[in-house]
Amino acid sequence: MEFHSLVSELGVPIATSLAMMWGCFYLIKYITGNLTEMLLTRFDELRAIIIKLIDKQKEMEIKLSEWSSNTDTLVRFIMDAQEREKERILRDYKKKNGTK
Q1: 23, 15 in Cβ contact below 8 A?
Q2: Could you give the percent of the chain with pLDDT greater than 70?
């Protein structure tokens, strides 16, 4: 049906309301169809990025705990070495001065 014949049969207000109804239907169809699909695709991409970031953060936590334990071991070794060095210096001093 042509636009002119629709206007002549139904009148301008009804023809424009039908045109607006068709426009709203098209807009709703677009929003629920293409736009929703596009948003879901973006959501899946963002979810994948977040999962990767969480994995990297967990890896960094594991490495940090390994480094922390290695650091603690190194600190204990240095402190033990300092204590042994103090004892050696004290023994050498006692030997030189003849005291026990």
Answers
A1: no
A2: 96
Q: 82-95: per-residue pLDDT in tens? A: 888 888 888 888 88
Q: Quote the distance between the C-alpha of residue 70 and its chain's center.
A: 28
Cα 52 to Cα 54: distance, rounded to the nearest angstrom: 5
If residue 2 lies in a helix (H) or strand (E), which one and from where to where? none
Distance CA 24, CA 12 (A): 18
- What type of residue is 48? A
d(CA 51, CA 46): 9
Output phi, psi for 15, to 5 deg: -65, -45
Q: 6 with 15: CB under 8 angstroms? A: yes
